Amino acid sequence: MITKTDVEKIARLACIDLDAEDMQAFTMQFNAILEYFEELEDIEAELTELEEHNVLRADEVTPSLPQRDALANAPKVENGYFRGPRIL
After folding, report:
1. Torsion angle, CA of 13/15/21/9, rounded to 10 degrees?
2. CA–CA separation, 6 vs 62, rounded Å?
3. Number of CB atoms found within 10 A of residue 26's CB
4. Is 13 exposed, middle or buried (0-12, 13-18, 19+ CB in 10 A)?
């Protein structure tokens, strides 16, 4: 649970001046956020009980694109390779 002292420390670290009304509002908002996180933890526990399976395809070797076809639309080619700009 977040207290007024915690909010004062957070405000000081963030270089924010808060009046008493803002301090009260932020204390309530921080506590509401923490309560929501507690609800999410309960949901996560329920989701981990589901059976998991691999959704990726099998890794199989297939023929690649021929070099000539791969270089056909390249703007610049040199000695059978893509030619790119020099980077200094």
Report:
1. 20
2. 60
3. 19
4. exposed
Residue located via tokens 């000695």 = 79
Q: Is 79 helix (H, G, I), strand (E, B) or coil?
A: coil
- For residues 30 and 7, the answer to whether their CB atoms sit within 8 Å is yes
Low-confidence ranges of the chain (pLDDT < 70): 44-52
Signed CA dihedral, 8, 10, 13, 19: sign only: negative
Q: Are 47 and 58 in contact (CB under 8 A)?
A: no
pLDDT of 88? 83
CB count in 10 Å sphere of residue 7: 21
Asked if 53 and 59 touch (Cβ cutoff 8 Å), the reply is: no
- Is the overall model pTM greater than 0.85, yes or no? no
